[in-house]
Amino acid sequence: MSKKDQSKLKLIVTHSANFHVDDVFGTACAILLFEKKGFKTKVKRSLDPKVWAEGDLVLDIGRVYNPKKDRFDHHQDLKITHKNGIKYAAFGLVWKKYGKFLCGSQKVADRVEEKLVVPIDAEDNGVDLYRQTMEDVKPFTIRDIVEIEASGTFFSGAEPTSNEKAKGFDKGFFNLITFAKNIIEKSILEAKNHIRVEKVAEKYFKEAKDKRVIILPQFIGYGFSKMKEPLVTVYPDARHNWTAKAVRVASGQFASRIYFPKSWAGLNDEELAKVSGVPDAVFCHKGLFMAVAKSKEGAISMVNEMFKESGFLPVKV
Question: Which of 139, 145, 252, 267 is the most buried (most CB within 10 A)?
Answer without folding.
Answer: 267
